[in-house]
Design a protein that fits this description.
By secondary structure, the chain is an alpha/beta fold. The protein contains ten helices and 20 strands. Helix 9 links the parallel strand 11 and strand 12. Helix 5 crosses helix 6 and helix 9 runs parallel beside helix 10.
Length: about 425
């Protein structure tokens, strides 16, 4: 389901141009309101109401409110014209009562509507009638008017969600059918979200050409309010380009998408599993490393200019999914917090409710080869984020006071560093360090 891929060289040529940088992140250009920036995927349909109520409480304790909810057509309408609304009604009522802000996506085909020829994997084949799918999305939007964002399908660039292979022209027609149906139903105040493309939108049976580029050329971006993709990679920074350069791939892709007129850009899934079974593409990591990867990717995403990102997922899942897919959660299956939950909570408490870009250049000797970002918190304190994926090194910061606090959120630790000769010596490595100045 979630498979990191090495990115094809086609990415370098997306809409032309390359990116050159000293520091590996661009300077932050706009403020980040944390509760509006970070959301989580919440597969509530896997759980009983008492379990997902406990998950909602854990989410609220983080100060977060955005949730992404998955709906499958064949669950919703097991027989044509006969809808099973009760489980979805309960979830939507719980979400509304809790004051959460949902993004809902409908994906897959009902048995009576699937293009599957042998009746197998019906959910992974596109529907016979795109207008019929669009009518179901309109029914959902009318039934749950408090949901303002509706996402059209999920990961249509890979066979796991669109068999037998990605078809940009067909998916563009599906998006057009939904946009047309929403307009005809007077739902112009709802926001349509492009189905999140897996990875950086490579299409495995098309030489890893990028589906986002194809959809841009087809004019599909004009039909939606938000473009989304799912940058799953083996490490937070992604795979290096040939030659070893670690410029974030999202930095290149996002610049091209903005240049193509995309109004809002979201990551509707990212994450790492703590599975321990036979290796399935993603390398094995332990539970604290999951939290470290989460906060490093979150730090990157704030600087890269995404409008919103969603972690996958709030909770671990059960044996109805393959082993790796069971262990992406911030919570164990029984609702207890995993180390990643506690690490995220430390990090969010450190950030405060809002960060503003700070123009200061913090390191004295430059930041070549480092991931760095400088932000100002609401209380006026400067926060310098940094890590060195190539290994340990020491950097010197100009002292603004006799001492500063150095945080290692991945270790839930903080310590005071005393200035010497007007400078602060900070050891960096492949872990996120936040210096509070």
């Amino acid at each position: 389901m979630k498979r990191p891929l090495r990115i094809a060289l086609a990415l370098l040529g997306l809409w032309g141009g390359t990116v050159h940088a000293g520091g590996l992140l661009p300077p932050a250009s706009r403020e980040v309101v944390v509760a509006d920036f970070l959301g989580v995927n919440t597969p509530f349909l896997f759980f009983t109401p008492d379990r997902y109520q406990k998950q909602i409480q854990a989410l609220q304790a983080l100060g977060l409110k955005w949730v992404r909810i998955n709906l499958h057509w064949y669950h919703l309408e097991p027989r044509e014209g006969r809808f099973d609304w009760e489980p979805v009604d309960r979830i939507m009522a719980a979400v509304k009562t809790a004051g959460l802000t949902p993004v809902v996506y409908l994906v897959g085909s009902a048995r009576f509507a699937s293009t599957s020829l042998d009746g197998r994997h019906i959910d992974q084949w596109p529907p016979k009638d795109f207008d019929a799918f669009a009518r179901r999305m309109v029914l959902l939007a009318q039934r749950y008017p408090f949901v303002r964002h509706w996402q059209i399908w999920n990961e249509p660039n890979i066979p796991g969600f669109w068999r037998p292979k990605a078809d940009p022209q067909a998916y563009a027609r599906l998006v057009s059918a939904v946009a047309r149906a929403f307009r005809a139903a007077g739902l112009d105040d709802r926001k349509l979200v492009l189905g999140g493309m897996a990875y950086y939108s490579q299409m495995p049976y098309h030489g890893n050409a990028l589906m986002l580029e194809a959809l841009g050329n087809l004019g599909t971006f004009k039909l939606v309010d938000v473009v989304a993709y799912h940058p799953y990679t083996d490490t937070p920074e992604g795979d290096p380009f040939p030659g070893g350069e670690f410029v974030p791939r999202a930095r290149i892709l996002d610049a091209r998408l903005r240049g193509a007129g995309v109004r809002a850009l979201w990551v509707t899934e990212f994450g790492w599993s703590t599975y321990t079974g036979p290796k399935t593409v993603q390398s094995h990591i332990d539970e604290p490393t999951q939290g470290e990867y989460l906060i490093r990717r979150l730090a990157m995403s704030m600087s890269l200019g995404f409008d919103r990102v969603f972690w996958f997922a709030l909770s671990d899942l059960d044996r109805r999914v393959p082993d790796r897919d069971r262990h992406y959660g911030l919570l164990y299956l029984d609702g207890r917090p995993k180390p990643s939950y506690r690490i995220l909570r430390y990090f969010l408490d450190l950030l405060g409710p809002r960060l503003r870009p700070a123009p200061e250049q913090v390191p004295e000797e430059g930041d070549d080869g480092l991931y760095t970002a400088t932000w100002r918190r609401d209380d006026g304190r400067l926060l310098w984020f940094a890590w060195s994926p190539q290994g340990p090194r020491t950097v010197h910061l100009p002292a603004r006071a006799a001492a500063a606090v150095v945080h290692r959120p991945g270790r839930l630790s903080r310590r005071e560093v005393v200035a010497e000769n007007g400078r602060l010596a900070v050891e960096l490595g492949p872990w996120l360090t936040v210096v509070e100045l």
